[in-house]
Each structure stands twice: as structure tokens, then as C-alpha cells.
Amino acid sequence: xxxxxxxxxxxxxxxxxxxxxxxxxxxxxxxxxxxxxxxxxxxxxxxxxxxxxxxxxxxxxxxxxxxxxxxxxxxxxxxxxxxxxxxxxxxxxxxxxxxxxxxxxxxxxxxxxxxxxxxxxxxxxxxx
Length: 128
Hints:
mainly alpha
């Protein structure tokens, strides 16, 4: 959206690659990270911090105990989820009362379509 401080400004994959001065595509970063390459893992660590910060703010506001990750980040879920899980549970207010789970979404890209359909559905039926 262009606003300062928005999560998308920091945590989107294109911005992450740009900030890290990584002259590679996401798919290349994924492969290097899976091979244990230090710079690639460092970039993913930064992504985990950004995502965890957004998740912590959401968890603190909404008092939820489960987070579902989806999208391109699923390419590195096994690497990044433990980092996010640890930070969220250490830093959130809710995490001090119980574990906050970070799980993979199994709906893939269909979840975006389902969310959009749900908005239309709720809007339509709220007027009845």
C-alpha cells in the first residue's frame, strides 16, 4: 500500500530479496536455503523476524492461539516455521499463557478465493 511500517513493505518476498541485496529469484533462494547456504538462511531468518512481528501484533490484539502460514513461504516452511514459532511464543503476551501454534495451511492458493467468496457471502446475507 506504500504506507510506512506496513508488514508487506518488509515481509513480502520481493522486498525481502531487495533488502538483502540478493540478486536471485525466490526459487533460487529456496534451493540454497535447503542446501544450508549461510546467506540464504540469514535472509530467511530476517523473513521469520518480520513475519513473527506481524503475527505477534495480531495475536496480542485478537487473542488467538493458532497461526496458519500459506503462499510462497510454504516452500521453506520446514526451515522458517520453527523460527517463527519460537519468536512468537517468546514475545507475545498470549504466548506467556500457553503455546501459540504455527501450522501450514493445506488449502494452498484456494484460500484466497475462499476468503473472497466468504466476504461476498457475508455481505449478501447480512442484508437479509
